[in-house]
Amino acid sequence: MSLSKDIDDSVDPSKGGDLVGTLYLVATPIGNLEDITHRALKVLSSVDLIAAEDTRKTKILLDHYTISKPMLSYFSYNERHRTPQLVEKLKKGQSIALVSDAGTPGISDPAYHIVQSCVAAGIPIVPIPGPAAFISALIVSGLPTDRFVFEGFLPLKKGRKTKLELLSRETRTIVLYESPHRVLRTLGEIRSFFGERNVVVARELTKKFEEIVRGPVSSVLEELCRKQARGEYVLIVEGASGASAHVVE
Ligand code: SAM
């Protein structure tokens, strides 16, 4: 293991060079405001601008840590239009922190377009690691963590059936994000397409009503049907075994 002692240097917004700024991809809490690194707070305090998926949500975090910074919105519907504006600012030497509503930017959240543009323009990009809901769910699941596939949200309509058929043969542990409105439907489809499999439902991680339900999909469904679905969910599904099983590319 090698740990750098040059923490101060690594968050110096001028690190990227004299002329261009640096884009920092900063992970933020997925519920508990205390789940943020010292380095993330240091970066958020020292950049010129914070690009946030939801400026009101990010303000709650910044206020909690008495950080005051100019903010710009950067979300899925304005990212194509916003990216060139942010790249111009970076080219002029400004340093920018990109944060999403929760967790790690770029993980089922905007970041990809600006990262691509910064790569193309030779602008330095620095990751500031921290929470991602799927990692927390996976490590408490009790299912194999040595090999897994992160699928994010399943397609809503087009391609959903094909994806479920493909995933039914996947041998690695499968990780999905799901909304409270669809969690029962998705678990029902997992039972239909995959058969009886062990699943883990991780709800409201790091929050007051954190809950982990483990077991065969039928019994998990039975348990979840007893109460109203609320909050945020990660679904972890045991990989396939047997003749038709394979790693899905
Ligand atoms: N960027 C985030 C990350 O790093 O995990 C994910 C953003 S995605 C738009 C939101 C989804 O992540 C939710 O619908 C849910 O599936 C999952 N999620 C986020 N926070 C969660 C939490 N505290 N507990 C369980 N799932 C969570």
Which structural class do you get from the secondary structure elements?
alpha/beta
End-to-end separation: 31 Å
Count the beta strands. Answer: 10
Within the CATH hierarchy, at the fold level, what is the topology of the largest domain?
A: Cobalt-precorrin-4 Transmethylase, domain 1
Distinct ligand kinds: S-adenosylmethionine
Arrangement of strands in the largest sheet: 3-2-4-1-5
The chain-level mean pLDDT equals: 93
Summarize the structure.
It is built from nine helices and ten strands. It is α/β, with parallel strands linked by helices and 249 residues long. α3 links the parallel β2 and β3 (71-73).
Explain what the structure shows.
It is a single chain. The model has no long low-confidence stretch (mean pLDDT 93). The chain is elongated, with a radius of gyration of 20 Å. The two termini are 31 Å apart. The chain is α/β, with parallel strands linked by helices and 249 residues long. Helix content is 34%, strand content 19%. It has a five-stranded parallel β-sheet, sandwiched between helices. It has a five-stranded mixed β-sheet with strand order 6-7-10-8-9, sandwiched between helices. The protein contains nine helices and ten strands. The protein folds into two domains: 7-128, Cobalt-precorrin-4 Transmethylase, domain 1; 133-237, 2-Layer Sandwich (Methyltransferase, Cobalt-precorrin-4 Transmethylase, Domain 2). Bound molecules: S-adenosylmethionine.
